Amino acid sequence: MVKLSNISPILVFYTFYQFSPHICLGKELLPVFYTLFHNLDLCNIQVLRDDRQISNIDWFNINRPTKILTEIKKSKSIFTNDFNPQPINVFKSRSFSPCKLAIILANQYLFIPRNPHRVLLDKYINTVLNGYMFYNDNHNRKELLGQDFVTLFVTAQSHQNKSSHVDFTLIEYSQIGILVLLDDGKFELCAWTNINWDKYAIFLQKDLSCREETIQHSANNIVDIYKTIPASLPPWCYNNLMQMQLVDVAYNNVTQSESNFGDSVTNYVLQLVFQAANETVLFQLNCAPAHSLLLFVRDGMEPHLSKLFPIKKNLVTLVITKNSGYEFLSCYRKEYITFKLYITPFKTWVWVSVVSSLTLIIGITTAYKYYGRLRSISFSPWMFILATLFEETGPIPVRIERNNFFRLVLGSWCLVSVVLTNCYNGIMISELNSPLPTYSPSNFDDLICDKMAPTDIPKLLNSIQYFTGRHENSSHPINPKENIFKSGYVRIAWYLKELVFFRSEGNNMPINALYQRTQELENQFTSNQCFSLLSLPNREVSGITSKLPELLDDLLSFVFNSGLIVTLTTAKTRFINLLDPRQIHFPRISDYRNSNQLIGQLAHEVEGELVECGKSAFIAKSDVLQSEFDFLKRHYPSRKFYKGKDIMGLVTSSWRFYYQGRSKVPMHVKALIETGVYPQVEKEETYNKNFRRKPVKKFKPDQPAPPIGLDGAVTTLFALCGVTVLAVCFTFIVEVRAMIYVLMKSMITRLHTFLRKNILYFKAA
Predict the structure, then answer these.
(1) 96 falls within a domain
(2) Structural domain boundaries, residue 370
(3) pLDDT band per the 50, 70, 90 thresholds, residue 509
(4) What share of the chain is helix, strand, coil (3-state, %, to 5)?
(5) Is 247 part of a structural domain of the chain?
């Protein structure tokens, strides 16, 4: 038995019957339920019938739990739905099943008033599609909508011509067919196909592809057989221009052109997919209502489909390609030494034991000396014990040395102190030789220079209104030392106003005549104590880049998004704090006023500033940042780059397929993603941008220390030694000056006596 779960995750199966109410009871019953339930797995089944008795079908073949409703009311208008479908509560259904089967039995009420020869299926399809199952969430009723569904119009062979009067609007019903019940247990299943997809109203009997089967000899159910009947599929409509319009509407209240769509990865994937599926894709500005719509939603930029295309959002197949957000990398480090270095060699309880032992030994020896008739001896136990801790010795009187108590206590302590001091010195030397502990930012909160309190958000909006209401020239210099700019929300408000006008000029947006245009962006609040948050423009048209970096552009769009205060969260407050003008968002040597500056020039400036390992961080989307991180690690081995640990503004990129019907395109795209082909192609495209890229700076590798010579810093050691010797000699002379005086006087006296004797001797001779 073939299960419907193998065909589709959720398969909604609709059948519509048209029988004559004048068939007599004595004639043969039509095997309607026998045919529909043949080889059908367990389903949630619901039968909606009108109040006319239909007695010529096999009701007894309903051999599974089924909900039968008889509350279909006659519709007064073709544009309204007056009947209540009584949907099933999914939490009260009999069993879980991936299959949902809805059967509508109708006679004269299937016909439209004033036109008894025409049947419109849309109303019945929408009834089952939007009102078949529901569930309650927080006391709110939510409809469980269907997506992949098959619509069958079931009739007898004698009434097959009635299907020529059945039509429907061709918007979302691409899986429609006719089930004709034949004699001898046979049936004919016809799949509707179309030749001209630009038509809006389609008659059911045209363009049918049929297959005849016998119920008993068939190993498949009705849906399996329908899936195997060849039929033309509606073409897919895919257009870059329409996608850019969708992104504009959804992403920003301030109009801006978005042209980073339709890159080589997207085109390459489309080529592979549509060749494998053997289907057609149209690149048109306007898509017909019958076309299947293909969208690529990049970085969570949700399109407003209702404004551009009549789409029911439940009829979409979502294939997620990746999750990405903003990350940062840097090589900034700040080394430091704290008092903790001196206490790390021993754990807490070791220090407690050492201090307790010292206190006990000093107390016992002092008390013994005082009460042991050794009071007259000049000896301080605590000085001796302290000297041993610093690997020094002190004189011990003879009577203390001969005392057995002091021998035992101080002797054992000397052994312990030798072990303690050597362990401590060894660990300290290892700590001093190891790299110093460093501080480096690990998340975006560490990059924020001044955090603004959530209570300042209303003040921020008032400040924005204040600055945008000023009619003076925006390029007029301001004084950043004014008291008004001491608050962070005031600085951010001023910066936002400047950025809005600065970006508006680059996009040729009309600005109210009351405001003077900003001729140049001069940020006078920049501080070297804050991080530089560097990023590159996110688009490039004919080599000319946008005026604002990607991060700054996205932050600006986020702030002016609606509902900022109502839905304020910690993450949103972090976004606002990153807009503090004290933090630099542009390369320091970059001239963003030059609209002809290429993105390659900006990338070189950002790289040159980043490899200096100052207070700067490069911020980009996850895939771009990983590529940049690998490039910097490979070409700058002497710099230790690291990435932040958190991701800011995590969003999802996905393919969206509307009205896929029987198309295999979503299946092929999903296969490319799950097998890793699509992520690998995206990764290679990102890395290929750095294929011929060369590093901006070249740093010399670390050289070994040169041998020491007398022409180097070692002469300082000899100079210090000489100065020390001279100072000692001078101190010695001062201290023994009296003895030197006596010695000198004695030597002079002896010399005088010697000379006098010799002189007298020579005179006598």
Answers:
(1) yes
(2) 337-433
(3) very low
(4) 40, 20, 40
(5) no
